[in-house]
Amino acid sequence: MGSDRAVESALSRLTKAGELVRVRRGLYFRGKTTRFGMTRPSMLDTAIAVAGPGSGPSGIAAAHMLGLTTQVPSTTEVAVPGNAPESLRGVRFRSRSYSRRELKLRPLEVAVLEMLRDPTAAEVAWPDVKQRIVELIASKQVRSQFLAAQVTAERHPDARHRWASLTAAV
Question: How many domains is the chain built from?
Fold first, then answer.
């Protein structure tokens, strides 16, 4: 690797040449090249990259990721472990327990936790939300043992109750 200045110069040249998109300081994206130019990263992917491990969608963005709504949020909500990072236009960061980072929760797992906290973001009733979570656990797309560990640390009592009812059904 080169010096910091050499890396900055190389990134700047690649950005000017259209090979990279600068998302924010220190964060670059390389998308697919189309006849219209390079694709841009999704707001959710950008926000998760900024927020770091253990972060994921919240609110309508969580419901959308889980396939529980057809709505696409105008402002992307992202649950982040610990303190919220510097703001990003079009994103609202929600501070959550730091243990999510320690458990290395995946964005889909964070979306499940956020639905346990507030299932009203979904366009469907709680039994359908519950069924979708059970399907994700059965297909091993989410790790139930990590969710169980995090739910015990949740301050939100409704999330703990919903998890208990969910695991009783499994």
Answer: 2
Domain of 143 in residue numbering reads as 43-169
> What DSSP line would sit under 2-14, residue for residue?
--HHHHHHHHHHH
Torsion of CA 94, 98, 101, 103, to 10 degrees: -130
Report the candidate in 2, 108, 1 with the shortest Cα–Cα distance to residue 48.
108
Same domain, 126 and 55: yes
What's the predicted TM-score (pTM) here?
A: 0.84
| DSSP 8-state secondary structure symbol assigned to residue 48 | H
The rounded distance, in Å, linking the Cα atoms of 42 and 73 is 12
130 with 155, same domain: the answer is yes
CA 33/CA 31 separation, integer angstroms: 6
Say how far apart CA 45 and CA 62 lie, in whole Å: 13
pLDDT in tens, 42-91: 889 999 999 999 999 999 999 999 999 999 888 999 999 999 998 888 99
CA nearest neighbour of 25 among 54, 51, 50: 50
Between strands 27-29 and 33-34, the pairing is: unpaired
